[in-house]
Amino acid sequence: MSAPPLYGRMSYAYLFKYIIIGDTGVGKSCLLLQFTDKRFQPVHDLTIGVEFGARMVTIDGKQIKLQIWDTAGQESFRSITRSYYRGAAGALLVYDITRRDTFNHLTSWLEDARQHSNSNMVIMLIGNKSDLEARREVKREEGEAFAREHGLVFMETSAKTAANVEEAFIDTAKEIYRKIQEGVFDINNEANGIKLGPQHSPSSPNSPGGNATGGLGGGSGCC
Amino acid sequence: MFAYSTSSITGSTLSVRSFSSDTTISNAFFNLPQSNFRQRLQAKKRSPKRVSKRAPLRTHPPIPRQMSLFRNFFGGGQQDEDEDNGAEYVETLVERAETCTAPEDRRDALRGLKGVAKKYRLAVGTMGMNAFIDVLETDRMNTEAMTIVLDTMAIVLSTDDDSSESDELGERLAEVMIKRKGFISSVLCAVEQFDIGVRRTAIQLISNLLRHRGTEVQKAVMEHPQGIAKLVDVIHDNREIIRNEAILMICELSRANSQVQQLLAYDNIFLDLLNIIETEPLDSIVIEDCMFVMLNLLRKHAMNQQIFREDQFVARLGKILHTFLYGNEETEDIEVTEWAKQRTANVIFLLQIIRTLVSPDNTSENTHAAQKVLNQTKILEELCRVLLSEIGASVEILTESIIVVAEAIRGNYTNQELFANTVLDNGEDVPRTSLVVLLISMTAEKQPYKLRCAVFYCFLSYLFDNEFGKARVIETLLPQSHNSSSSLTTGALILQAISSAESVQAWFGCVTLMHCLYDVDHLSEQLLRVNLTVVTEDPPLTLLNHVCQLLVSTGNRRPQTRAGLLMLLGTWLQNCPAAVSDFMAKDEHIQYLTTNLVDECGEGSESEQQVLRGLMAFVLLSCLKNLQSKEARSSMEILIQRRVGKELILSALEGLSRTEQFVRAAQKQQPTNELFLDFHFVKLFKSLEGTLAKQLKPNGEFNGTSNDSIIQSYKELIKRQDGDIAQLKQDNKRMSLEIEKLNAEVQNKQMEREVENLRVRLEESEAFKTQNEVLNSQLVESQRLTQQWYAEAERYKQWAQQWQAYQLAQLPNGVETGLAQLQQQVNELEQQLGFGYQAFEQQSQTMLHYTSENANLKDRLAKTEAALAEANYKIEQLNLKPISNGIVVEHEPQADSEEFSKLKQEQEELLMLLADQHNKMSAYRRLLRNLKQPVTDDEDE
What angle is formed at CA B405 by the lines to CA B400 and CA B410, rounded to 5 degrees? Predict the structure, then answer.
């Protein structure tokens, strides 16, 4: 009993909510799967609405839980996914480096995100599928330029080879953490997508007094 | 068709409006799925009770005077006429509300509408709609009007009539409202307003809309990127009325739509609700509402369950449960007697939430994870204690707790062990384990039936997938474990139950024992070793024989007991040849089966008899299947053929799966109220049915297992169709996506065009604006200049005044001097004017004089000329007589011409004088004009 309960190990200092947005088929769900399960699934069902995954990371010696909401990229789900912007602390805006159109749509995604999210949301621009160098349509420099122009952090990743996947999620978390340290985020407002972790694992409730006479066993019980 | 449509036929203007809405809405209304009704009905039944409990009663303003006049006039009896007049009255009010320009008038009209909204729902709802929407959209800042309108709309949608199955009118009015473009947005905006009236009525309106048209409202709210978030935000309102109203609204919002449910969870509603629950008193109905929402969000929603666990809310549930069970520290001493009814209801809701997390309906992953969490958070431990200790909980709570424990331990070895190791130490001789306690309750006839069923389920859940647990129960029956005879063992209790004269108990016992044998074949053989310790008789009676004897002794009575015994036997004999030979050792056993299989007049309903025949066929054929030697099998086959007939036994076997009991048992793991067949036995039966039947039809292809193969083919068909359906669904989804996409594109294009237009217009207006600005700045500049000038002029004026004053001050008595001077000047001028006049007068007289003179002269001239002409004539005559008058003639013309030239000269002088006179006159006139004297036209002459 004196040993910390197993549950205690799950406690965290902060919980950050992320959303992953971008056109359909750019690999949002695969990025999430690679990050949470460390595996790649080449054929993935279309995401319907919104799904979520979670993982614990350590930043600055603090346990931080990332709760990541993976949205459907299709236009028809836009109205649903938009509802998730407000409550998120971070967003991964993903495009596919082998599909120019997904890069061209970034502006509209960004507008959407800026319009519906809280102003402090950290947005990371991700050019995914960097393993498909041969089919590249969008130059790395273009991504960098777009990110610079709009004040985003930029990274090229591959959900397949796992290149930069960890970094993408963790760097975003670092940025959010930095903003918390600077006092930019109001951590008491959960609508910002940040939650303080429970300080301690829940203590077990006290045992009832010894005056029990047996609800079932006593025969003359309460029933 | 509808009661109120009759009134619309007689009404003059109303009939047109309401009739048209009638036709459109009714169609949609009839297409509603039945289940929605039930849900909503439930909702409605819940709500009035609680509204009256919490929110202060809504007080409507007294019905306006005109109305009471109407009522008096018609005596209130004639409903139709009253309705008509009501409609007319409503129409007047609506007209006023729509046309009045004075805000007070309009407000009064709206207030009047609100007053009659309850009475004339249709009229107010349909005719007033435009006015209401207008206020909602254009008069947002007018909180008073907004409150009245929102309240009116909410009233129109609600009914006091609890008896009616559904509120058709409300449904249709709600539909009309939702169809208005921008309506939901307006209401959402109203919810955002801080004003208590506006916010409260807006929330009530949304609740009512949700009750009638849940799906559509949910969809409309989802269309707003922050719609759900806005509604969740209202829960944070620290005005309790608003908060409670908001919770009720969320209750409605959280139904059925998994996307809305997920979004609610995303917006941290669990946290908010738990916070509220923790601050409310234990017997608060608000807690029930909160838990109702949580239950909605968690039931069969894998993702929300995951969030709930990951956010560690389960632990908080544990704390809340503890508080509920043992009270707060400060209330501990009071809390001894019975709980308040609401507190019990709250605990049951709480237990249901916990149960939802571990329900067998979830995916096994989810259930397993939740079971783990229940263990870690000590909730399971707590619940086990509830089972065993006296805490003043009602039987409902106890029953629910047992079911929660059942599902919390089901198939989870750790939890099963935890449960089994919980001990009730009540100070008596030996502590009892929880399993023993369960079985005691199960076998106690005086315990409520529901509780016994729950206990039974709990015991089965302990055995589920728990080989060790099963073995331990069997072990207690084996001879060597009988060292402590005084203590009650699980095995002994089960045997006691099986032998009981109470059918239910016997059935419980049989099925419990049967569950011990599932999937663990070696235990069937172990069980054969069990002997009943009967002191008096010499040959020890084996358990199998005991069970068979019980069966034989019941004859064709006690169907429930027989069903239990037959299921137990049927299971025991599977994969256990030793058991089969033991069973067949006594002829009477087989004989019992073969005779009763053809017996048509046993106890019990026809369906129950069919079940029993099926079970007997199952046992017989199981014997046949598990016989070792070929000879024995063929003799057994002959025996069956002779005594029963192959056809009959096969039809009995087939018949079992067609019974009501079979179908019902196959549906749910948790035993239903009617205990006859068991879920797991049904599964076993299904898996063996084909094999058993095949024994009597060796040429399976030719002769049969027809049933089996047909089922198989049907299964395949179903599978194929399932595939097709899935495919079509996918296609459908894709198509609708595409259509939506295309629609969106079309819309986008339109929008783009519109945007383009707007942009152009914007540019134009911007140009105007810049122009305007330039002009403005110029205007400002010139104004500035003008002002400067003004200032300068002012300054000069001041200077001039100063100068004048100075000048005047220089003179003695300055003003009078100045005045005198001026007076003098005036006098002088007047004098001059007088002179001018005199001169003018003189002139005109002179002129007159001259004119007359001139006339005289002319006259004279004419005379002279005449005289001349006469003279000339005389001269000529004289010339004609030159001799006589010669001298005279010559002389006379000379004198005449002298005179003539003199006259001529005179005349010329006169003319000159006249011209001179004229010039002078002109000069005077000019002078007069200069002196500003009026000069008339006749003076011109």
Answer: 130
Q: Is the pTM of this model over 0.90?
A: no
| Residue B192, phi then psi, degrees to nearest 5 | -75, -20
- What CATH number belongs to A14-196? 3.40.50.300
Looking at this predicted complex, what is its ipTM?
0.76
E strands present in B453-582: 531-532, 541-542
Positive or negative, the CA dihedral B485, B486, B487, B489 is positive
**Euclidean distance between CA atoms B699 and B697, whole angstroms:** 6
Is the Cβ pair A218, B312 closer than 8 Å? no
Work out the angle at residue B409's Cα, subtended by the Cα atoms of residues B406 and B412, and round it to the nearest 5 degrees. Answer: 150
Nearest residue in chain B measured CA to CA from A211 = B390
Instruction: Name the helix (H) or strand (E) containing B423.
Output: strand B423-424
Please tell me which residue of chain A has the smallest CA distance to B318: A205
pLDDT at B33 over 50: no
CATH architecture of B83-267: Alpha Horseshoe (1.25)
Rounded to an integer, what distance in angstroms lies between the CA atom of residue B572 and that of residue B568?
6
Min distance A145 CA to chain B CA atoms (Å): 28
| Helix, strand, coil % in chain B, rounded to nearest 5 | 80, 0, 20
B398:A67 CB<8 A? no
Burial class (CB in 10 A: 0-12, 13-18, 19+), B427: exposed
In b/e form, how buried is each residue of A128-142, taking b as 16+ CB within 10 angstroms? bbbbeeeebebeeee
CB B156 within 8 A of CB B124: yes
Query: Across all residues in chain B, what is the average pLDDT?
Result: 77
Residues of chain B with CATH 1.25.10.10: 83-267, 516-701
pLDDT confidence tier of residue A95, bands split at 50, 70 and 90: very high
B493 CB neighbour count, 10 Å cutoff: 21
User: B233: nearest CA in chain A?
Assistant: A191
Nearest by CB: A69 against B266, B394, B740 = B266
Over residues B59-89, the pLDDT tens digits come to 334 434 444 444 444 444 445 556 666 777 7
* Number of inter-chain CB pairs under 8 A, A vs B: 155
Q: Tell me how far apart the alpha carbons of residues A31 and A139 are, in angstroms, rounded to a whole number.
A: 20
- A168, A169, A172, A174 alpha-carbon torsion, rounded to 10°: -110
Pick from A88, A172, A78, A89: nearest CA to A126? A172
pLDDT at res. A157: 92
CB atoms B390 and A221 under 8 Å: yes
Taking only the tens place, the pLDDT of each residue in B242-276 is 899 899 999 988 888 888 888 888 888 898 899 88
Q: State how far residue A53 is from chain B, nearest Cα, in angstroms.
A: 9
| CB contact (8 A) between residue A223 and residue B741 | no
Please report which helix (H) or strand (E) contains residue B834, including its range. Answer: helix B814-880
Return the minimum-mean-pLDDT range out of A106-110, A137-141, A157-161, B111-115.
B111-115
Q: Would you state the structure tokens that stand for residue A153, as one six-digit string?
A: 């952090």
- Return all residues near B143 (Cβ < 8 A) that are at least 6 apart: B193, B195, B197, B198
The answer for residues whose C-beta is within 8 angstroms of residue B44's C-beta and 6 or more apart is: B162, B167, B211
B665's tokens: 């048992």
Domain extent listing, chain A = 14-196
Residue B514 CA: distances (Å) to CA of B69, B221, B582, B602: 78, 53, 17, 24
Q: Report how far residue A201's alpha carbon sits from residue A194's, in angstroms, rounded to the nearest whole number.
A: 19
Question: Would the CB atoms of B390 and A74 count as touching at under 8 Å?
Answer: no
Q: Per CATH, the architecture of B516-701 is what?
A: Alpha Horseshoe (1.25)
Count of Cβ atoms closer than 10 Å to residue A104 Cβ: 12
Tokens of B713: 């083919």
